[in-house]
Amino acid sequence: MNSHDVILNTQELTKSFKGFTAVDNVNLSVERGSIHALIGPNGAGKTTCFNLLTKFLSPSSGKIFFNGLDITNEKPAQIARRGVIRSFQISAVFPHLTVLENVRVALQRGLGTEFHFWKPESSLNVLNERAEELLVEVGLEKFTNEETLNLAYGRKRALEIATTLAMEPELMLLDEPTQGMGHEDVERVTELIDRVAKGRTILMVEHNMNVIASIADRITVLQRGSILAEGPYKEVSNNPAVIEAYMGS
Ligand code: ADP
Questions:
Q1: Which GO terms label this protein's molecular function in UniProt (predicted)?
Q2: pTM score, two decimals?
Q3: Residue 137: pLDDT above 70?
Q4: 141 and 24, same structural domain?
């Protein structure tokens, strides 16, 4: 991989909480256009890593580069404007808005405007059209005018992906996208992630090995804050240290 193919990388990224090191000298490298999974047992430091990459937490030491640019000292909003977008938690989707309205709010956020529900009809139409396109992309077009509250769980996660897409991500960070889902929803969301990955890069924390095996191009395994292994699924899943630390557990 030459440096041009790397969209995001970290150099000795470290986060300590009162003497406890949750992320320890991590050198992560995410290839442009890939689906990259971050895995590891509970407490391995995955969430802390995501919080560092989006600057919800500041690193204790080390650096973060996006497209070769040092973004370590940037604020969360600046990083989001560069196109590093973390999937919204379901709680961040407004339950009493319709599905379309939720995507429109995300589009307005992406434009850096406030929530002008009173915007002139013309610009509302433009936003609605784009929102409808995104709903088609995630397969929710039949639910456009449904109150979000009434969506089934798997569809809420698809809506979450649509609101993330609305922010025009270059790099999407997905936080356990299939967590708590039944088999059918897992398959649907996996297929959706694979589809929206075209032309984008995805870094995801995911526990479901079937999901990882079917769509992840590369995997980084964290253990106690450090990288234990990195590579394609086949290689990583056959690594004895990984089997012992994670796969076998
Ligand atoms: P994972 O997402 O892989 O389960 P986390 O990143 O949530 O792991 O946590 C890594 C370790 O850091 C855990 O031992 C956790 O208890 C600790 N940790 C995370 N956040 C904090 C915090 N704000 N203060 C103290 N310890 C924390």
A1: ATP binding; ATP hydrolysis activity
A2: 0.90
A3: yes
A4: no
